[in-house]
Amino acid sequence: MQLGINLGYVGLGAHGTDAAAALETITQAAVFADHLGYSVAWVAEAYGSDAPTIMSWIGAKTSSVDVGAAVLQIPARSPAMTAMTTATLDALTGGRFRLGLGVSGPQVSEGWHGVRFTSPLGRTREYIDIVRSALRRERLEYAGRHFTLPLPDGPGKALKLTIRPVREEVPIYLAAVGPKNLELTGEIADGWLAVFFAPELAGDQLDAIRRGRRAAGKGTEADPLDGFDVVPTVPVVLTDDVAEGLRRVAPYSALYIGGMGSREQNFYNQLACRMGFEKEAELIQDLYLAGRHRDAADAVPDEFLDATALVGDRDRIAQRVQRYADAGVTTLAVAPYSRGLDEGARLLQTMAEIVLAPGGGDQPTR
User: Fold this and answer.
1) Quick one: which of 350, 345, 348, 322 has its CA closest to 1?
2) In this structure, are 329 and 317 located in the same domain?
3) Res 287 pLDDT > 90
4) Confidence (pLDDT) at 309
């Protein structure tokens, strides 16, 4: 099992008001992860800092670690623009770029980007078709339900990307939550970016990906997931006080379960329900949408937090890490919940010693 680090994004909700200080923090974390042998540094975006700018910065400061988007928002960019960004970043980093994509949610898609949140699966399929075609440097012609290139009633012409990525195929990941999106991920993507991944409860999710892989003839007959990267982002708190550490993660969980979407459309709330936390998810959402964010965090049960995060001292975390490899995780993306650079460095060092030191981190463990 390889290690990644999820650097998040710079914004008021993620790192406070000092963007320069926040950028320096995540830059130092990425450089240290590079030194420790982490395989990839993931960068996010919501409606704060954009991912490509920070990825280019991180890529310039590091030498070995891959730089990944987790994720580029599909409604924020045309597929051709995403192909341009992908080729440019892969060239700038010497072939170290990984493209993660996600449809975001209706609030961000329609409220921030002005793009209707309709037919997300169909749009994703066509979007990736176009991105891959552009990266192959084919003349871009596409007649789909959601995208038509060139437009048929104007002067547009079929163009070809004028910059080459370093690699013939840049790996594409999808952030997927629901069963149908997971099947699509297995069918058309090279990896899955997972959230709230509980190793003991992830069987149905991985089965959905397997169905997609089998339908596309990918992997092997014995193991459809062969060659597929399963990448959950896992909050990690290195602490002697497990109870306090779990509470440190609770606001993040409350934000997604309670506030990342409307009452009718919140994929993370629905995921928590499928995981067996129906009553708790309903209460968290009620409190969050009522503006009682602290109460919503208090309502997130320790059982959920402990199932989806790694919290405790070195021994406790080491005992619990193997669950991820046993469940089929190939890259564990660490989201450090640390207070200060020194504590964060200890956390990253500890995770490297636990996960990478026994086998060197060169080959994923299944």
Assistant:
1) 322
2) yes
3) yes
4) 98
